[in-house]
Amino acid sequence: MRQFFKTFFNGLMLSVKPWLLFGLLVPIIFFIFQPVDPMLLLGVLVIAVVVFFSAKWAKEMPAAKKATEEAEAKGQHFTDIDPEDESHESPLKRYKNKFYPMFWSAILSACMLGCSYQMIYDNVSKKGRTVAAAAEGTSKTWNASNIEMVHLKDSNQYVTNSDSILSAETQEKMNAILQELDTVCEVKTAFIICRQVEDGDTYQTAVDLINQYGIGSKSTGKGVCVVVAYDQHQYTIATSRAMEGDLTDAICSQMGRTYILPYMKSEQPDSAMLYLTQGLSRYVHDLREKGKAEVIAPFQSKRGGFFSGQSGMNMLIILVLCFLFGYFDDKNKWTKPSKTIAKVADTSDKDHQKEEPRKSDVRPTPPVNKGGSYGGGTSGGGGATGTW
User: Fold this and answer.
1) Distance between CA atoms of 163 and 129, rounded to whole angstroms?
2) Along the 388 residues of the chain, how does pLDDT read in single tens digits?
3) 3-class secondary structure per residue, 107-127
């Protein structure tokens, strides 16, 4: 274990020096001119590094190889495997000793830059949405009469993001899950998140929405209406009368405590709403298939976790690269004979072949946008309301 950490920190120190020169400066420069997609930036950087070092290799490698051949033709002997003195190495070996660490360090620095830019980008985007919503929607108070029921205009939409509190990506994921819940389980939903509702009463707003629009399936009458007033720190999970047997008041209250409260308290509305959507879908599916279900915390869900996000994946890649960089340097793997190098390359290739795309990266084909309908639900007064 001690050797592991020594190797890791050795690789980190070797790679962090060039990153410090431009790793924090470049994101600032990009934001001054125009923010770009983090993955696009990372791709451009990696391609630029590969192109630069490929050209450098093509230009300088033949000269080093020629110098080695000429020296050997004159009878000079070199010790390229574990030499006692660097002067005993061939020009080709000395060139490789210089080239490979530079190339690896540049790749690692590009990944570090991509990770730092991703975190800055996400943070600025989140604050930008909050500021924009505060400027545009703080003064507006929402009620059952002026809340836009997006599903009635577009059957693929179930989430009303009145004040742009949620990101477009989160809203898209929620709509996909709720559409599947509608299609498979015949449960109609309406998720509304805004800054404030009339009289600060999310419960009355949810009940009015269910009764006014008949939120629920026409065939089963089952429906769920969620209203979240972000600035007023209140939420309600309300059900139609036909849904009360499946989602009791106790279950709605437990869902609120499990999925909404922890993340709203830490100002993570995207996580709160997405986890609630996933939890509701999982619960209804289990109830339909097994006849019983339970509310499972987000960290037990396979869809959650730190490394499900792009920043988390970037950090994981960097940690692996740091260890490999230190390992190669400690063991002098850069310039071992070709068989050893090929073996290392084969192992890396196999690792990359095992990588599979994450479920969250697979986007469904956008369906034709046609208005949906409610009309099968009436409120029985059930549900749960909470504050944070």
Assistant:
1) 9
2) 666 666 666 666 666 666 666 556 666 666 666 667 777 777 888 898 899 999 999 999 899 888 888 888 888 878 766 666 666 778 888 888 788 878 877 777 777 777 777 777 766 665 555 555 555 544 588 999 999 999 999 999 999 998 888 988 999 999 999 999 999 999 999 999 999 999 989 999 999 999 999 999 999 999 999 999 998 999 999 999 999 999 999 999 999 999 999 999 888 899 999 999 999 999 999 998 888 888 888 754 444 444 445 556 666 766 776 666 666 665 554 444 433 333 333 444 444 444 555 544 555 565 566 777 777 777 767 777 877 7
3) HHHHHHHHHHHHHHHHHHHHH
- For residue 294, what are its two tokens? 């339970």
d(CA 37, CA 31): 11
- Taking alpha carbons only, the member of 81, 77, 76, 111 closest to residue 96 is 81
- How many angstroms separate the CA atoms of 328 and 346, rounded? 15
Nearest-angstrom CA–CA distance, 112 and 317: 9
Please state the pTM of the whole predicted model: 0.52
Measured distance CA(306)–CA(302) in Å, rounded: 11
Angle, alpha carbons 264-200-243 (nearest 5°): 75
Strand partners, 262: none
The token pair that represents 373 in the structure block: 């309908």
Quickly count: other Cβ atoms within 10 Å of residue 293's Cβ: 17
Beta-carbon neighbour count of residue 3 at 10 Å? 9
Q: Are 328 and 99 in contact (CB under 8 A)?
A: no
